[in-house]
Amino acid sequence: MSLDPQKTIIAGQNYEWFPAEVLNVDFSGKDKEKLYTLYCRIMGAFGSQTSFDVIQARALDANIKNIPIIGEIVLVTKAPTPYNSAAGTAQEYYYSNPVSVQSSVHHNGLPGVTDMSPDRSPKVQPVRKDAQDGITNKVKQRLLVNKTIDPNFAERLDVYPIQPYSGDIIFEGRWGQSIRFGSTIDERRKYPQSPAWKKGLGETGNPILIISNGTNPKNKPFNEFILENIDEDDASIWMTSGQQVKFTEASKVVASIQSKKIDLYKKNDYKGNQVIVSSDRIIFNAKKQELIGFSKEGVGFSSEKGISLDAGQVVEMESKKISLGINAISPALLGDRTIEWLSDLCNVFAKVLDAIAAQTHPTGTGPSGVPINVGQFYTAKSNILQLQSSLDDLASKLVFLNKSPGGPSESDVTDAKQKTSPTYIKSGQFVDEGDQPKSVLDSINKELGPSSDDIILTAMDIEKVDGIKIDMISLYDGSKDLDFGLGDLTGDDGNDDTGEEVPDGGPV
Known about the structure:
The chain is α+β, with helices and mostly antiparallel strands.
């Protein structure tokens, strides 16, 4: 009889590997040097044959774990323990993956097998007739005892193996998840389940990688092969190399995508190198840095309901053309320039009204007086100036446009700085609070008086009422200061609204 420490003596025989029934699994992790430990009972030729048959074993593989459940069978061997000395190398037990006694990806429990006597007669007559005895769909063909598999194991009857193809490497979980390292197969060979992918733009032997979670087969017999289904699986990722993989689009609202020809996937009939992610919900979460997407041909998003963009600071788009609506043809107006143009238009109307109010006509007795309805013209002028004073309210504080792609020009930036709220307006309208560039002051001075070389506008006394109305400015011609209230400034000949002369420093 060999005394090889690498071997285990069972019923007088030496074994390097032997089967054992799993009795319990340690999930606590309290012993940091013996993680993934389980307790199992050694099996002899026909069951347990020794009173010293319950052993403790650790996982053989340090990186890939297949945690057994109570009632499954594992193969056990001896290997060195970390507790060694100069006297020799100690040994302890290690277990491999569960033995596939039922060829099931879900579980391979054979509970109570070590309770059987060598004559193969069960010690207790069977009372269970369902899959929880560990013999799924084959209860009547096995010797059973009154034992069940792990009571904490949620057994399912809808987990099936996936169809293998020549050369595949397949990882399958217990619950209907899988990773397939497959390929484009030679379709001359027939399989029970034909693959869900075709050759497409590639060749036979091109790789394909499928990660599938949550298969949903219906009305399948026990252990019948199934296929990954990109439309029906709970979640999946398909990475192709030329293959054709068809799927059902979740949204049919694609008018803009088609208009801009971002539909090569459709034109290629879903063929080519691609990554397809499919699930009821897809979430990308960049916890600390950017979420970036790049595309050569286009980026298309479609939703049956809505598409929302939220940002804490700014949402910015840049292109040679930005269209709101399919093939939009009407250009948007630039807010600041539109306001400036409308203000200029108001000035023109105001001056026309002043001219009408002041007009005289030759008569047989000399020039006539002003029109008898002059008040109506001044009222109209007042209304126009009131509209003019509210133009800045038209400018959005949310949406901004550039005149052309590539960002604002240098002149656009300068204008924007000079015209930011409230916008400066020529000819006695509104001026930004604070110092203004000389070019701006010059342009205003030219509108304010006949002698622009002598009249200088300063912003020292400018005040705003309700954010836009200028209450007071200072004009001086080098000899004396002239203060004018600008609320009624019209740029006329010094008369107030009634046509009466006013003293220097009075309201105009």
